[in-house]
User: What shape does this take?
Amino acid sequence: MKTVTINPVTRLEGHGKISIFLNDEGNVENAYFQVPELRGFEKFCEGRPVEEMPDITSRICGVCPEAHHVAATKALDALFHVDPPPAAKKLRELLYSAFFVADHTTHFYILAGPDFIMGPTAPKAERNILGVIGKVGAEVGTSVIKHRSDALDAIAIIGGKRVHPSFGLPGGVSKAINETERSRIEEIAKSEVEFAQFTLKIFDDLVLHNKEYMNLITSDMYATETYYMGTVDSQNRVNFYDGNIRIVDPEGKEFAKYPAADYQKYIAEHVEPWTYLKYPYLKSIGWRGLVGGKNSGVYRATPLARLNVSDGMATPLAQAEYTKMYETLGKKPVHSTLATHWARLVELMYAAERMLELSRDPEVTNPNVRTIPTEIPDEGVGCVEAPRGTLIHHYKTDERGLVKNVNLIVATTNNHAAISMSIKQAAEGLIKKGDVSDGVLNMVEMAFRAYDPCFACATHTLPGQMPLDVKIYDKNRNLLRNLRRP
Amino acid sequence: MTKAKVAFNWASSCGGCEIAILELGTKLLDLKEKIDIVYWPAALDYKYSDLEAMPDKNIDVTFFNGAIQNSENEHVAKLLRAKSKLLVAFGSCACGGGIPALANTKSRELIFKSSYKETPTTENPENTYPQSKFEAPEGTLTIPEFYNTVKTLEQTVDVDYFVPGCPPVGPQVGKVIETFVSGKLPPKGAILGASDKSLCHECKREKTDRKVAKLVRTYETIQDPKKCLLEQGIICMGPATRGGCEAVCLDANMPCRGCYGPLPNVLDQGAKMLSALSSVFDAETEEDIQKLVDGVVDPIGTFYRFGLAQSLMRRTKQ
Assistant: This one.
């Protein structure tokens, strides 16, 4: 998703490319993370009828199409100056909560789970979803598939399609839901809440009680001090669908809080010649290269970032998990990249609870789901929290509603600089005197995988291995090793 | 019985086709008894070098999703063609170019300028642009070359079968894979996982042969969920689009955008849609016609949303 044109990261093709260069001593001199794809959305959307943007931009990413669809739809509300009826907003958020449930579930079990559940040093052959199923039981595997599929059922009830929903319009949504549909979604949501609790229990048993893993979570090798970004409600609690964007500094102090429409005052993007993806940074701090700390504009927008910028969660079970996480780790903000996995599960709990809350709201079956726009379209910004970070769609049109300009800052893109830094940091910590073991690959990848980078939505597929090329060069620039993720 | 060797690959696409395969859910686990997945970058760790090392025609069938938009897409398409007995264009992007082919309305130069210079948050005073080969202080870094024109898979290599859809819907994906497992193959060039009739044949909406005096855009009116959208003045690509998806967008009260591609024996989906539109227009004077035509505010993006690369036009001049 990239902004842009780049496909947002999303598909960046499912490939990430890392080149690590060693110096005379065989230690890491530099490591480059490259994104090898661009698709051109920002430009080729020009001339399109703006109401088609939710449909077109959902094709930025087939893993998180709901995020683009809903961000685009919110941009249309702003652009047409129209306020959707309450039922429409709730239906959008209900679909969105179901989407978070599906996405976070997939990531934990299929992508991250193998590292957590099997352990980072488990044999490659076991470090996948099949290994996970072997360890926690086949019924868990079936349950993962069922809960993911049920969440997609809920999405299809509201949005029509299981992949690439089709329901967002300026001023509302294309159709209401009836009582039968509502009650089916409620039934699904109840089960998702239980499943989220079960998932947190697995995490507690297998990770929090595993000293080796806890040592990794707290090790310096995986800690990066940066600014953090996320969307909060009026009480500074995490919200995925709407609110203000809040940024805190590496010490946790509020740096900015603003409506998404003001994003240009806060965010700028840097270009490098060796990758198709840009690097967003905090404009007033400035681009200082791929470094962390208070004087660098690098920020992160991840599940952990969202928890770091917020004062808590808006639902009771998630709030309890939030408190437990910060009490266990003993500080806030938490800088450990690997704690992102834990934060993702706290969010899973919230998404399931929010889904249940909304499914029980009598308003969601109200047939009034559209406000027809009456004003001339001009410009609008739409923003949501995608699973992988804050997502911004910004459109300008002519008076007929034909697109003139598009700017997209896509979720994973926010983390581009931090991902590059985390990879380099892990490589520096692991590669010494030219000694490059296969174990390095997984440990370096763990730094990468914590971000759930949508470069490869691939990461979301069975058995959950993301294609990642790691090339290591010696001081004479000869290729020493070419490692691929197992 | 030996298991069929199957490969999946994506090129320039959103990854939704890979999710469509995941949609098989537990069925995918059952399929593991019948097929061996020998290459799937999304899921398994095989590199290009592993592919290169395979004998030619080693893979029984490759499902290839995504359009061809850069040098890496093209390289992998050629490699997989050589290594596969059967190559299937899977999804709208591989079949017709898909949404990425809308880039054929712009030039590579304009796309780069927009992305790396003009977008309002981009700060690029030194006019830095990504380069396919860059000499960093530590060594050479390469990324694939971005092409000016997006192509379909068939415009790049020989293709045996086509599975349309953005993405192909779950039940159809299951049937397609079953077809290959069964070994009862249709003639080369067949379109699989779709109907031979237009979407209108499976749309449940009521049609009355009512004529349209004015086209409206989706946001301008509240659509009646029971009646034909075209008869309500909304451009719905149903008459010019293959069925097979079970009209899921129509059930969501939204028009068809044409992702299942052109009908059998139709060379150009947009031309077919124009003729379908003219048959519902209620126009007596030239003014009437003009008014109706003015209602098509974006002909390319409407008629070729998913198939610009395979259309007669292919791309616009820059």
User: Anything to note?
Assistant: Chain B has a mean pLDDT of 91. Chain B has three domains: 4-99+148-182, 107-147, 199-303. Strands of chain B lie at 4-10, 35-39, 59-65, 68-70, 84-90, 133-136, 139-142, 146-151, 161-163.
